[in-house]
Amino acid sequence: AKNGTFLEVADLRAGYGDGTVLDGVDLAVAEGEICAVLGPNGAGKTTLLRALCGMVRTEGTVRLDGRALPRRRPEAIARLGVAHVPEGRGTFVPLTVEENLRLGAYTRRDRQGVAADLDRMYGHFPVLRERRTQAAGSLSGGEQQMVAIGRALMSRPRLVLLDEPSLGLAPLITRQLFQIVRTINEEERTTVILVEQNAHLTLEFAHRAHVLEAGRIVLSGSADEVRADEQMARAYLGIE
Ligand code: ATP
């Protein structure tokens, strides 16, 4: 993208019903970046991802690669290359692992490309290859999160929105999952927005981070800069 900005968000407002949750969010994400969005419960992190993929009422500007994303048209936004992995994963528990992964490619007609991508996903997540014929619901939480991410990647997105993938996972499992996300980001140049409450671990994996509080970005910088910010450290990292 020109001038380095791949996703540009300007004065984004969003909410439910008459209520406002996002109150003027500005955000710039470079192509190929892992961008963390941190912040307390209720700050609006989930709403930000929903706004980006067209699931809530929005005002303001969202541009992907210079192109304005349509409002409230999730399918059209998905076709432009934005994939959303919602909180709680959204795997189809009675379907097998492979059926779940294939659902991510349901709009694609190139059978060979889909087969190759399926193989690539199993390369990233070898445990899913072993469990390909098992019901997704029989997998561990970490494995189900892998299915959800793998399914999103099967659409060959340019931007992946991950909503709190660590939810309910043990720290070691979360670390392994983030490691895989980083490998995918490096190998496939997929841009990632990672919403998390677990600031410590997330800052190890993100390139840049933004702190959202009460619907506004209150701090932005490289992962190191955000980690070094005193207020941030006190509020979210448990550092005195
Ligand atoms: P959490 O980590 O708890 O999910 P968050 O930062 O992701 O927090 P949001 O889930 O975006 O925050 O919620 C922001 C505000 O929007 C909260 O006050 C919440 O109650 C409200 N909200 C979220 N979803 C809805 C909805 N579907 N309808 C009405 N209000 C909602």
TrEMBL record:
SUPFAM superfamilies the UniProt entry points to: P-loop containing nucleoside triphosphate hydrolases
NAD as UniProt keyword: no
InterPro entries to which the protein is assigned, alphabetical: AAA+_ATPase (IPR003593), ABC_transporter-like_ATP-bd (IPR003439), ABC_transporter-like_CS (IPR017871), BCAA_Transport_ATP-bd_LivF (IPR052156), P-loop_NTPase (IPR027417)
Residues annotated as domain ABC transporter: 7-239
Entry GO MF terms: ATP binding
Short name of one Pfam family: ABC_tran
Origin superkingdom: Bacteria
TM annotation in the entry: none
Keyword terms: Amino-acid transport, ATP-binding, Nucleotide-binding, Transport
Protein family (similarity comment): Belongs to the ABC transporter superfamily.
Entries under PANTHER family matching the protein: HIGH-AFFINITY BRANCHED-CHAIN AMINO ACID TRANSPORT ATP-BINDING PROTEIN LIVF (PTHR43820:SF4)
Protein name stated in the entry: ABC transporter ATP-binding protein
Lineage: Bacteria, Bacillati, Actinomycetota, Actinomycetes, Streptosporangiales
